[in-house]
Amino acid sequence: MKFYLISDNIDTLTAMRLVGIDGQVVHERQEFLELLDKKMHDKEVAVILVTTKLIELAPDVISELKLKQPEPLITEIPDRHGHSKIGEAIDGYVSEAIGVKL
User: Fold this and answer.
1) How do residues 3-24 score in pLDDT, each as one tens digit?
2) pLDDT tens digits for 38-57?
3) What is the pTM of this model?
4) Domains parsed from the chain with CATH numbers
């Protein structure tokens, strides 16, 4: 089982390649969704790492996949261009799922 990175910048991809994680750089929503779909069906990929900027291109699709697809695991990672609001996103997911604001 492998990790795979879908990134919006070459710097993150280069860093991940140094630790043995393959990936691809995309910039548009459609190419991101096509690559994500392709990797969701790749049985060798266990974890898909996605940069925050790409998650923000399709939050509805990502939320749906996280709730309904048992594998592979989709994990948001921040890149070097700023901080991530992953904690806020998790609060939002939980609040939406259970109907209680955290």
Assistant:
1) 999 999 999 899 889 999 999 9
2) 999 999 999 999 999 999 99
3) 0.78
4) 2-98 (3.40.50.10580)
The conformation of residue 48, written as its DSSP 8-state character, comes to E
Strands (E), the chain: 2-7, 22-25, 45-51, 73-77
Q: Taking a C-beta distance cutoff of 8 angstroms, is the pair 51, 77 a contact?
A: yes
Average pLDDT over residues 66-89: 75
Whether residue 50 contacts residue 74, with contact meaning beta carbons closer than 8 Å, is answered with yes
Cα torsion through 44, 7, 63, 84, rounded to 10: 130
Q: Give the HSE-up count for residue 45: Cα atoms under 13 Å, Cβ half-sphere.
A: 22
CA 6/CA 8 separation, integer angstroms: 7
Are the CB atoms for 52 and 77 separated by under 8 Å? Answer: yes
Q: What is the pLDDT of residue 2?
A: 93
> Peptide bond before 78: cis, by omega within 30 degrees of 0?
no
